[in-house]
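TASK: fixed-backbone design
INPUT:
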């Protein structure tokens, strides 16, 4: 076996693995972050959401720029930005600095994510390309499995700052390897960068996320944010309709299958993973588990998703992706609902069956989703379709964290009162329970009620997505993405 020919894939997968791990690696470190930085509940949500939000907002535009300046150059730039911002995250002395650094980290991740598939396509052909995309997909699944556990290991033994410092040697290695073995490619006829579309889309997404995290629905500021969202969306639609080379061709949304798949891909992380941040608070601050123990509790979900993705990848060409995605989303809904069984005296074991089910459902969905979306649109738009899928996936995670955070916080305020909701959501449940008396029972009841309510809402996301896919996606088999020969311009926008 010629190992050298697979070195470009190693370089590309190193960046992919790192940027996807960083979506979830902070989950089990949140209680330590909250205590160390004396942060508030909304700040915790921004640490999670801003990274995914920036990644989603800029991935399509990054692909367009990469077509012009070179995909390898964009990937290398993303690695450097990611490394510098990871260092800034680890050195943050305040929550404001951490949030800002996470935003810049999302920018670097978008530059990498937008170029990975194009770099693989230019590095391999024929059967080797299929193998490369299969390995790349497995790395995507492995990143989900590694995130919470890696976060737990690093936080337990070295402190939460090391979940960011660990990126530095990986970035250095990936930069060196990319310079040595990955060749540069560009689109000979690149489209213009859709700056108005990017700006209006980013403003709409950020304003809506901020409104969801802020809550206070009767306040003028929240209503103003919603108004900004609406105006920015109108501007985005107008811009995309009149541009000859839009960031997103809105005519694709007339295809009911493609539109439904975008809804499903947004609701997937909102249903399956967004609630884990608040579940981690319960596991650590109420039950007293260490970060690594909390990561191990969440591990069955990630391993089940990874294992099922591998199995489904082998039979995807023989099976209706519509049924796989629809059934997978319904299984996710069932698994999330099965976690809504926390009672005042419950321990961590009550969550494991539901977490496993969520992983099984996610494994059914992850493998066919991108391929099905790309098969639902004309071939010249396959790259744009893949980019849109990854954009909506990250937006779905950001919005899921925001919506479920509002539900969770509301539950704490109803059961523990507004004065205690802040400390409890900030990882200080142990200190509150140490006061003695009835506080232990009260805190346990507040978390049980709030988490159960959060899981019910998350299950509703999965149920809606599953029913929509089965009802509106046209039956048929999708050609696996790796068998397609991406158009040069489109490839630069895939992720």
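OUTPUT:
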């Amino acid at each position: 076996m010629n190992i050298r020919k697979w070195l470009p894939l190693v370089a590309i997968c190193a960046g992919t693995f790192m940027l996807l791990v960083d979506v979830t690696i902070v989950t089990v470190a949140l209680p330590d972050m909250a205590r160390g930085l004396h942060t508030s509940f909304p700040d915790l949500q921004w640490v999670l959401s801003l990274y995914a939000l920036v990644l989603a907002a800029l991935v399509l535009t990054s692909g367009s720029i990469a077509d012009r300046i070179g995909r390898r150059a964009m990937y290398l730039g993303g690695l450097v930005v990611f490394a510098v911002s990871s260092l800034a995250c680890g050195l943050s002395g305040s929550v404001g600095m951490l949030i800002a650094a996470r935003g810049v980290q999302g920018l670097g991740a978008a530059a990498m994510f937008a170029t990975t598939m194009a770099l693989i396509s230019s590095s391999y052909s024929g059967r080797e390309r299929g193998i490369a995309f299969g390995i790349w997909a497995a790395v995507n699944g492995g990143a989900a499995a590694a995130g919470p556990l890696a976060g737990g290991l690093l936080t337990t033994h070295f402190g939460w700052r090391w979940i960011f410092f660990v990126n530095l040697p990986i970035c250095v290695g990936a930069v060196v390897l990319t310079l040595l073995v990955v060749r540069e490619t560009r689109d000979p006829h690149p489209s213009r960068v859709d700056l108005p579309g990017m700006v209006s889309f980013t403003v709409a997404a950020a304003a809506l996320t901020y409104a969801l995290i802020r809550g206070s629905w009767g306040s003028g500021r929240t209503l103003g944010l919603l108004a900004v969202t609406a105006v920015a969306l109108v501007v985005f639609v107008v811009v995309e309709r009149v541009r000859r080379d839009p960031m997103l061709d809105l005519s694709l949304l007339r295809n009911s299958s493609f539109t439904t798949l975008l809804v499903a891909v947004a609701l997937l992380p909102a249903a399956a993973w967004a609630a884990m941040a608040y579940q981690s608070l319960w596991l650590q601050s109420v039950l007293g588990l260490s970060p690594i123990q909390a990561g191990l509790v969440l591990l069955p979900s990630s391993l089940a998703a990874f294992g099922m993705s591998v199995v489904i990848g082998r039979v995807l060409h023989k099976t209706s992706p519509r049924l796989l995605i629809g059934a997978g989303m319904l299984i996710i809904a069932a698994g999330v609902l099965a976690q809504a069984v926390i009672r005042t005296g419950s321990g961590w074991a009550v969550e494991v069956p539901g977490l496993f089910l969520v992983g099984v459902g996610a494994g059914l969905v992850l493998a066919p989703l991108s391929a099905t979306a790309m098969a639902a649109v004309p071939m010249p738009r396959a790259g744009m379709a893949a980019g849109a899928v990854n954009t909506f996936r990250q937006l779905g995670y950001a919005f899921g964290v925001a919506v479920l955070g509002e539900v969770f916080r509301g539950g704490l305020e109803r059961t523990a009162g507004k004065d205690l909701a802040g400390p409890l959501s900030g990882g200080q449940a142990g200190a509150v329970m140490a006061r003695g008396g009835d506080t232990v029972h009260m805190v346990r009841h507040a978390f049980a009620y709030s988490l159960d309510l959060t899981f019910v809402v998350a299950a509703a996301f999965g149920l809606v997505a599953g029913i929509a896919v089965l009802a509106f996606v046209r039956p048929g088999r999708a050609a696996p993405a790796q068998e397609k020969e991406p158009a040069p311009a489109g490839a630069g926008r895939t992720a």
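COMMENT: The chain has a mean pLDDT of 85.
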